[in-house]
Amino acid sequence: MATLTCSVAELQSLLINNGGNTSMATETAKYICGRFDAISNNFLDTNHAVDNTYLLFSSYLVFAMQLGFAMLCAGSVRAKNTMNIMLTNVLDAATGGIFYYLFGFAFAFGSSSNGFIGEHFFGLTQFPSESFDYANFLFQWAFAIAAAGITSGSIAERTQFVSYLIYSSFLTGLVYPVVSHWFWSSDGWGSPARVDPETLLFGSGVIDFAGSGVVHLVGGVAGFWGAFIEGPRIGRFDHEGKAVAMRGHSGTLVVLGTFLLWFGWYGFNPGSFLIISKAYGKSGSFYGQWSAIGRTAVTTTLAGCSAALTTLFGRRLQTGHWTVTDVCNGLLGGFAAITAGCSVVDPWAAVICGFFAAWVLIGCNILAEKFKYDDPLEAFQLHGGCGVWGIIFTALFAIKEYLNEVFGGPIDRPYGLLMGGGGRLLAAHVIQILVIVGWVSVTMGTLFFVLHKLKLLRISSEEEMEGLDLTSHGGMAYEYHHGELELLQKRSLEGTRIDP
Predict the structure, then answer these.
(1) What is the pLDDT of residues 437-473, one digit of tens each?
(2) Is 329 exposed, middle or buried, given 0-12, 13-18 or 19+ CB atoms closer than 10 A?
(3) Helix 82-99 vs helix 161-170: crossing angle, to nearest 10
(4) Number of H helices, E strands in the chain
(5) Is the separation of the CB atoms in 444 and 175 below 8 Å?
(6) Collapsing DSSP states into helix, strand and coil, what is residue 312?
(7) Could you give the 3-state DSSP secondary structure of residue 243?
(8) For the chain, is the Cβ count within 10 Å smaller at the N or the C terminus?
C-alpha cells in the first residue's frame, strides 16, 4: 500500500487563500495533517501485521511438513528401523534450528553482502530490521530443515546415528544457505530480485520461486551422495544383481505422511510470496497479490493431482497393480516439480508439469535399479529428478505478465521459451542446475566420503540385520511376542520382506 501524505505548507496556503488568517490556518493545517498522519500510520501498522501474520501462518504450515516427512519415512522403512528414522526427523528440525539460527540465516540473507554468501544477522543480531522480522527467520528455517529431511530418507536403514547429526548441521548451517543466497537474496548472483536490474543473470535471474532447485535439488543431490557412498542395503539386490523389493512396513503411514505434506505445501508455495497485502496496478482493485497466491495454490494442487493419476496408470502398465505408495510418491513428485514455477504459470500448464513429473520419477526409478542405486524413500529420484524437471518446466512455461507482477523489475524480463519469451530464461536455469549439482556434490559428497573413511557413516552388517531400533535405540517401535520377533529376525537374515 502506498504511503498517505499530508503537507502542512500546502494545506496552510489553501486555507489562507480561502479567507483564513495565517495563525489560524497554520494551526488548522497542523491539526488536520496530524490526524491524517495518524490514520496513515495505522494503515501501515495494519499492513505489517497482516503480512507478518500471513508469513507466520505459512511458516506453521511448512513446519507441519516435518510431521509429514516423519510419517512418510516411517511407513517407507521396515518396522525394525522405525524408531531410528523418526528420531532423525526430530533431530533434523532441532539441529537445523540451532545451526540455522547461528549461521544459516546470515549466510542466506545477511544483506548487504557479496553475491556468494551473506555477511550479517549471525545469531539474529540486529533483529527485527526494516528488511526482516522474526517471521522471516521462522519461515526460512522451515525450508532449511525440509532440505535436511529429504536427505535423511536417502540414507535410511543403514546409517550411523552420529552421521545424521553431522550432515544435518552442515547442510542447514552452510550448504543450503549458500544456495538460497544465490537465488533468493537480493544480493545473490542468480537472484531475480537483484537491486540493479542491469546485473540480472541473462537479464532475468533464476525464477525458482519456492525451491525446486534451492530446496528439492539440494536435498536430493545431498541424499544421492550419502546413498551412493554407503551402497545399497543388504539384500536389496540379489547375487545376480536383480532388484529385490524391500517395501516399507506401513502403507497407512505413507498415505498419512503424503496428505500432511500436501497440506503443508500450501504454506510452502503460496507462502513464498512472503506478503499478501500488495495491489497490482491501481490501488483498490479486486486483483492483487492475494489473487496470485490463490493461483499458486491452484497450480500446486493441479500438478500434484496430474502426477498422481499419471503414476497410477503408468505403474499399472509396468507392474499390473494399483499401488498406493507409488501414487503417493508420484503426487509428491508433481509438487516438487511445480514448486519453481507455481506463481508464474497458468493452471493448464501445471497439469502438464505434473504429467511429465510422473514419467520423470518412473524413469529415474528404472535407472536407479539398473545402476543398483538404493534409496528407500526414492528421495533423489523424486526431489532431484522432479526438481530438475520443475526448473526446466518454469523456463518453458513462465508467463510474462505474472513475472512482472511477482518479481517486478525490467518490463522486458525474459519469460518462458514456449510462451514466446526466447531462450535466455532457459539458459539461466540450466546454469542453476549445474551450479547446484556442483556445489552440493563438492560439499556434501566430500563430507559423506570423509565420514565413510572415518568409519562413521555406515553401521555394521550385524546391526543392519538386527535393525537400528534394537541396536541403537533401546527397543522396537512396535511390541511383538517372542515368537514373532524371532520370525522377523529370521526373515531379515534371509534378506526377504519383513512386514510384521
Answers:
(1) 999 999 999 999 999 999 999 999 999 999 998 888 8
(2) buried
(3) 30
(4) 20, 0
(5) yes
(6) helix
(7) strand
(8) N
Can you list the alpha helix ranges (DSSP code H) found in 320-346?
A: 324-338
Answer left, alpha or beta for residue 27, where phi above 0 means left and psi between -120 and 50 means alpha: alpha
- Which of the 8 DSSP states describes residue 2? P
Q: How far apart are CA 376 and CA 352, in angstroms?
A: 27
Which one, of 257, 249, 275, 265, lies nearest residue 302 by Cα? 265
Residue showing cell 520419477: 361
Confirm whether pTM is higher than 0.85.
yes
Count of alpha carbons within 13 angstroms of residue 398, beta-carbon side: 36
Phi, psi of 339 (to 5 degrees): -60, -35
Q: Is the peptide bond prior to 285 cis by the omega test (within 30 degrees of 0)?
A: no
pLDDT digits (tens, 9 = 90+) for 39-71: 666 667 788 889 999 999 999 999 999 999 999
- At residue 176, what is the residue type? Y
Phi, psi (deg, nearest 5) at residue 458: -100, 145
Dist. CA 359–CA 431, nearest whole Å: 24
Radius of gyration of the chain (CA): 26
C-beta atoms surrounding 70 within 10 Å? 24
* Helix axis angle, 134-154 to 176-184, nearest 10°: 130
Q: How is the chain split among helix, strand and coil, in percent rounded to 5?
A: 70, 0, 30
- In angstroms, the CA 111 to CA 120 distance is 6
Contact (CB, 8 A) for 289 and 105 = no
